[in-house]
Design a protein that fits this description.
6-stranded parallel beta sheet, alpha/beta, Dehydroquinate synthase-like, alpha domain, 15 helices, single chain, 2 domains, Rossmann fold, binds fe (ii) ion
Length: 402
């Protein structure tokens, strides 16, 4: 990044509050909104775990009428968002939403507030479609996973199941009024979910740090987020009740989300959307599968930045030249994925090798993410990236480029 040729700035419309037990005092924020009706949106797992009861009890203290919808599933489709929007009953005046869950729940609410305010169908409002012009009902985001950073971003990723693709809604109207980060809600999260969501958070931070649209503010946030994940993700996965690990991961994922708000993302996200859409992989798993191969492809474009990431992840780069030190970042990520006992290749998941050209072609259409990747691949290079991810190999440290 050549700073003398750049312009950037920052302001932030979301009130972020962090603290153990904060969600049990949600009435403090709810009262500020001065609305009389609330729709709490979540999923059945969170309901069964009893996480909603204290939140609903607190909302009752704010003297608002509470309705509950707990039917969100992973990778929400447009129809589900329409269903949630319909709960508004065509009257958004006196209404706010509360999203309690991971990225799927928060994104569902983002899409639902748009559709509730504008009418029509959720998928109409994807990027490039109908404009989001009206002000939408406010909502509070309460994340229960440490991953997407959806609680601090104005984007929603929604599945168009009939077209087998994911679409993005983007508007300042999608920002929540409040993001309440309560690490106690993430205690006990299963190892697999912790690992996958944590790898999404790390991908967000790495892609924001190396984006062609990054700036010192975004980089400072992204690098801190990556370092916290490098230090705490293994422990959070291995010790589900470790509150210190959970707290660090929840803040780190918020930092990852905040950094990509400013800087954008990159090729890992471009690849992960078709991969997730065609093979029903969670977003976190799809990013983890693609991250080492994309980093290895990118490192020649910005080795200094990858060296920073290697150091943030605790790698020892003594005696290495710059390109090797950049490769150490790739190796640190591969080691993390291995330690988390996650799948390490597309092959391991049974994804047919013959589908790689299709996945590469669809990834090349994800221009919003690709345009900020530090090295823009052509289609043949994209196929090579998928082949690396398929084989699960990265010949890091040997100076060989794709
Ligand atoms: Fe992500």
């Amino acid at each position: 990044m050549i700073l003398s040729t750049r312009q950037f700035g920052f302001s932030y419309p979301v009130q972020v509050k962090y603290g153990c037990g904060l969600s049990k005092r949600i009435h403090e924020q709810a009262s500020q909104l001065k609305k009389r009706r609330v729709i709490v949106v979540s999923d059945r797992g969170i309901e069964k775990a009893g996480l909603l009861d204290p939140i609903v009890a607190s909302l009752n203290r704010a003297a608002v009428r509470v309705s509950l919808f707990t039917g969100v599933e992973s990778d929400p489709g447009g129809e589900l968002c329409d269903e949630v929007a319909a709960l508004a009953g065509g009257n958004c005046e006196d209404l706010f939403f509360v999203a309690v869950g991971g990225g799927s729940v928060i994104d569902t609410v983002k899409a639902a507030v748009v559709t509730a305010a504008h009418g029509g169908n959720t998928l109409d409002y994807q990027r490039g479609g109908r404009e989001i012009v009206k002000s939408c009902p406010p909502y509070l985001a309460i994340p229960t996973t440490a991953g997407t950073g959806a609680e601090v971003s104005p984007y929603a990723v929604i599945s168009d199941h009939s077209a087998q693709k994911k679409v993005v809604l983007a508007s300042p109207q999608l920002w929540p009024q409040y993001a309440l980060l309560d690490p106690e809600l993430t205690l006990g999260l299963p190892r697999r979910v912790t690992a996958e969501t944590g790898m999404d958070a790390l991908t967000n931070a790495i892609e924001a740090y190396t984006s062609t649209d990054t700036d010192p503010f975004a980089q400072a946030i992204a690098l801190k987020g990556a370092a916290m994940i490098g230090k705490w993700l293994r422990k959070a996965a291995a010790q589900p009740q470790n509150l210190e690990a959970r707290s660090n991961m929840l803040v780190a994922s918020m930092l990852g989300g905040l950094s990509f708000d400013y800087a954008g993302l990159g090729a890992v996200h471009a690849c992960s959307h078709p991969l997730g859409a065609h093979f029903s992989l969670s977003h976190g798993l799809a990013t983890a599968l693609m991250l080492p191969a994309v980093m290895d492809f990118n490192r020649s474009a910005c080795p200094e930045l990858y060296k920073d990431i290697a150091l943030a992840l605790g790698a020892d780069i003594t005696g290495m030249d710059l390109f090797e030190a950049a490769g150490a970042a790739v190796r640190a990520v591969r080691n993390l994925i291995r330690d988390l006992e996650m799948p390490q290749s597309l092959r391991e998941l049974g994804i047919p090798k013959g589908e790689l050209p299709l996945l590469a072609r669809e990834s090349m259409q994800e221009r919003a993410n690709l345009c900020t990747n530090p090295r823009v691949p052509d289609e043949a290079q994209m196929i090579a990236i998928f082949q690396r991810a398929y084989a699960g190999e990265c010949r890091v440290n040997k100076g060989r480029e794709i």
